[in-house]
Amino acid sequence: MQIIMTKFNKTLLYGSIALFSVSSCTKQLELKPVSSISTTSFWKTENDATGALYGMYARFTNVTATYLFIWGESRSQDMKASTGVDYTNTRNFDNSLDATAAGPDWSTLYTVVNDANGILKNVPNVKFANPANQNRILAEAHTMRAYLYFVLVRTWGAVPIVTDPASGYNPSVIYKERSPVADVFALIKKDIDSAIALFPDNSFITGRNRWSKPGADALKGDVYLWTGKVLGGGASDFTTALNALTEIGSSDVALLSDFTSIFDYSNKGNKEIIMASNFKEYESGSETFMANMYVYSGLPANISPGTRDSLGVLGGDNYWTLTSDTRSRFSDDDLRKRASYIDVYAADPVTGLYTNYFATVQRKFDGMIDNGIRHFFDDVVIYRYADVLLLKAEAENALNQDPSAEMNAVRARAFGSNFASHTFVNGTQEVNDSLILNERLLELLYEGKRWWDILRFNKGDELIPYFKTNPGSEYKFIWPLSLNILSLEPKTVQNPGY
């Protein structure tokens, strides 16, 4: 996913505008930067605007295919390196990042920010037959930019604020100093409010893979919970979050009765999904990160027949697996356990019992089978209704309200006929917080939430082994800037401690 520097787009760290016809999204997209001349001649028709929107979502898959999981979950140490060798990400898992091994940098995020900036600058000047369609496109771009900056600010702290599209070589646009965290959140909140005002209704686009008003409300709740807890916004922010999250319940959303069916390749865009990044065979540039957590053909010959049948067609590489601590948090009667992962055991040569642990294989996003080959083209879920209910429970608890209704809605599905033994009972604010955070792990495992959840609840020193054994390392809650970014961006400086 390297960005090619051209004469006219010399340092496209913040992305390039690629132009698409409406029909181009039926084929694999070729993302090519365009010159300022072609950009000037482009924004003429409604089809131009729609094509630019599709281009924005197409490049968003470069963010979601792997990077979003790495930024949002890999460092929480609910995972570790498995039987394969994945030198690239080992330092994410063990929190030994530095400038030379800094994880994925922010260039892919700013590429999509630039797409949103181009839409927000140019679409108001395009004539639409129906102004509601114009407003929806603008609303989606505002929401996308807000979401991307939310990822940026939680990952690196202070980041450059870029709101003008980069076109040609213009250092005053491309080279930016990092803006304070408060300023970044001010932009995020402004974008969210603009989006909510512009969405013409509460509906979803078919597939639920584009931003909607319920999606913007979910983002708003997430953002205000973060600023309420991490930045001291307190009760005012918690109230704003709760109101936004409550509003989602009036849209066409529901908890599916079967947890497994939420993630089925054949059931994309179901009523639990609020926003997902779309992947399809023959259209996506690459398979998702879930390929790293399935299993290849090197299974031991002596695993149980039942396990082999459950895994079905093999595929991917089992580079990443769950820690024993994470696995121990699931009770055997939690239906999410079997739906999320399966432990592979080989037979002990002496006893013949299946007790020799080999690996853990994720089953939540197990892709699709085509011509006997497993492909990992599941959508990457950004928000779904169970996530919203747990965020709502968190906001309620922060306001000293009873979060039982939301917690028990999630648990009732998770435990089915055994729910009576797992009913949530309102307790102290501290106890409730601990239970809500743990419920989010059980419900949202593999969905790129855990690292940010732990930081939002201020539990990094308590729940992440590295920080428990390395006091004084809290500076690592913010990621380092890579040497690549530091060399390309002369006005940026490294985060303290690195």
User: Roughly how many Å is the radius of gyration?
Assistant: 23 Å
Give average pLDDT, whole number.
89
Structural class estimated from helices and strands: mainly alpha
Main β-sheet, in a few words? Answer: 2 strands, antiparallel
Low-confidence stretches: 1-38
What is the 3D shape? globular
Oligomer: single chain
Helix coverage percent: 40-55%
Count of distinct strands = 10
End-to-end separation in angstroms reads 25 Å
N to C succession of SSEs: HHHEHHHEHEHHHEHEHHEEEEEHHHHHHH
Percentage of residues in DSSP E strands: 5-15%
- Count of alpha/pi helices: 20
Strand order of the largest sheet: 1-5
Keywords:
498 residues; mainly alpha; two-stranded antiparallel ribbon; 20 helices; 10 strands; disordered N terminus
In short:
With 498 residues, this protein is mainly alpha-helical. The protein has helices at 36-40, 46-64, 67-72, 87-93, 107-122, 131-156, 171-174, 181-198, 213-229, 234-248, 305-311, 324-328, 335-340, 385-398, 404-415, 429-444, 450-456, 460-463, 465-469, 483-488, and strands at 79-81, 159-160, 178-179, 273-277, 320-322, 341-347, 354-362, 368-370, 373-375, 380-384. 43% of the residues lie in helices and 8% in strands.
Describe this structure in words.
The chain is mostly helical. The chain is 43% helix and 8% strand. It has helices at residues 36-40, 46-64, 67-72, 87-93, 107-122, 131-156, 171-174, 181-198, 213-229, 234-248, 305-311, 324-328, 335-340, 385-398, 404-415, 429-444, 450-456, 460-463, 465-469, 483-488, and strands spanning 79-81, 159-160, 178-179, 273-277, 320-322, 341-347, 354-362, 368-370, 373-375, 380-384. The strands form five sheets. A two-stranded antiparallel sheet has the order 1-5. A two-stranded antiparallel sheet has the order 2-3. Strands 4-10 form a two-stranded antiparallel sheet. A hairpin with a 6-residue loop joins strand 6 (341-347) and strand 7 (354-362). The two termini are 25 Å apart. 47% of the residues are buried.
